[in-house]
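FAQ: What does the model actually see?

It sees only this:
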Amino acid sequence: MTARGSIAALMTCMAAAAATSPALADSVPVGVPLEAVETTLGVPAPQVATAVPMPVVGAPEAPVHHKGDLLPTPLLPAVPVATDLGLTKVASPVPNLLGSKETDGEGTLESPATTVVTRTPGAVLGAPLTMPDGSNYGIPNLTAPKLGVVAPDLVGSPSALLGLR
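And it is asked to produce this:
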């Protein structure tokens, strides 16, 4: 490989790494454009800034085989999904708060960034047959089938702060 080929390969790798880095972000910051409200209504519009969460799917739980069961448990595994809810801030001017221009202020509503983890529902299914029975010439016996749903989970601690300046 020549020096020119090595530099070209290095530049290609760097470009690919730079192109994929925004896709790996936990959230994408977004400013909400509300300038049209100001021009249309003639009132000061609030400033809204937030982040769009980018969910990251984890590895599903591995099914476990138990002695005496024909099917693994859970048959349909739950899949974890995690995301970061980014900082959200809404700020709006509050004119004539106490009836005079000297008391003009700004009201804010802010939600700090937090992580939310969820898990999809899963399913447990039991076969209507037992394992082969030696006392019954190797023929499986009938049993009541079992069916269950693994409840979904949602774990997080979102909060909000209200302020007036």
